Amino acid sequence: MTEPAPRMQTTNLTAMYGKFSAVKGVSLDFAPFQVHALIGPSGCGKSTFLRALNRLHEMSVGGWVTGTVLLDGADIYGPDVSVIRLRRRIGMVFQRPTPFPTKSIYGNVAAGLMLEGRRPKAELDAIVERSLQRTALWDEVKDRLHTSAMALSGGQQQRLCLARTIAPEPDVILLDEPTASLDPQGTQRIEELVFELKRDFTIIIVTHNMQQAARVSDTTTFFYLGNMVEHGPTTQIFTTPQQEQTEAYITGRFG
């Protein structure tokens, strides 16, 4: 990316996703080109907060949001905002790999690009190759780009989903427990990619793995019962937390 990534900020963000998952009054500032970890026990609001950052909660019956989410100073909930274009700027990778089952490896990576209309094949080829290279998948699939994505291993499928997400060059990447269903080797590959990709993208990751948060993130935010309890540099959160609840969670006394 030739220009700095826009800053993302939330102010007094309150959100509901589904019937029970809620987050209340969260104000955060996500600096560009950093990895921001969201931690906390199950049901504390981490994923609800993440979904509110690109309006995915709107796909849930009863989902709603109050407060503001700003990207480069503009409210993503503004009346003139195209949700499709927004989700190109704020991409998301889920807990389980979600390749499109009817598309090839090539078709999966190119899927978001095709929403904008037809592109020259040479341009598409170049973007697909670059995206697969950036996710360390090119050498593994370059000879079978037009075969089914479902034939890939779980770890490869997750890297494919990451390649699909970065192909349109988003400003922000949201990762919702992206290694939860992977083996240790697959987890290590994703963590290495996260570290590499933050040179070009702002990354916000939900994780239950305290060691993972400590390894990959620059800042960490601890959620509990829908509230943001503490936010700060990862080294500070894990070595000298300011709140007793935070210390109890990261030391394994609950959660």
Describe the structure using short key phrases.
globular; 4-stranded antiparallel sheet; 255 residues; 6-stranded mixed sheet; Rossmann fold; alpha/beta
**What is the beta-strand fraction?**
15-25%
**Named CATH topology of the domain at 8-99 and 175-250:** Rossmann fold
Helical content stands at 25-40%
Q: Helical stretch count?
A: 10
What's the CATH class label of the domain at 8-99 and 175-250?
Alpha Beta
Q: What structural category arises from helix and sheet content?
A: alpha/beta
First and last CA, distance: 39 Å
Weakly predicted, low-confidence segments: none
The sequence of SSEs as H and E is EEEHEEHEHHHHEHEHEEHH
Q: Any idea what the CATH architecture of the domain at 8-99 and 175-250 is?
A: 3-Layer(aba) Sandwich
Within CATH, the superfamily of the domain at 8-99 and 175-250 carries the name P-loop containing nucleotide triphosphate hydrolases
Shape: globular
Total DSSP E strands: 10
Can you walk me through this structure?
There is one protein chain. With 255 residues, the chain is α/β, with parallel strands linked by helices. It has a domain at 8-99 and 175-250: Rossmann fold (3-Layer(aba) Sandwich), CATH 3.40.50. It is built from ten helices and ten strands. It has a six-stranded mixed beta sheet with strand order 6-7-8-3-9-10, with helices on both faces. It is globular and about 55 Å long. The model has no long low-confidence stretch (mean pLDDT 93).
